[in-house]
Write a structure and sequence with these properties.
mainly alpha; Helix Hairpins; elongated
């Protein structure tokens, strides 16, 4: 496959990704796969850099989705007077320290 073919494929993949946002769960699965491939040690330097770049993009996108979900939950929990009725979870989560 030529370099221009790969560039066209990447461009098409980006356009598809931008047109239809991926669900959070799918982003996490893809990110885990990227990490496994990087940890496998079988990639060339160039492939590793491309995978790392993809991983950073996936992590940022997943982070944005979490932030958006948090904002949506906050909006749902707001009382009519604008106050928030629920308290945030402790750092350890609802089940306590692990």
């Amino acid at each position: 496959m030529s370099r221009s073919d790969r560039s066209e494929q990447k461009g098409a993949a980006r356009a598809t990704a931008e047109a239809a946002p991926e669900p959070y769960d799918r982003l996490v699965v893809r990110l885990e796969k990227v990490v496994e491939e990087l940890e496998g040690g079988e990639l060339t330097l160039e492939q590793s850099i491309e995978k790392f770049s993809e991983g950073v993009r996936l992590a940022r996108e997943a982070g944005k989705k979490l932030d958006e979900a948090e904002r949506r939950v906050d909006m749902l929990l707001r009382a009519e007077d604008g106050s928030v009725e629920a308290e945030p979870l402790a750092e350890d989560g609802p089940e306590g320290p692990r």
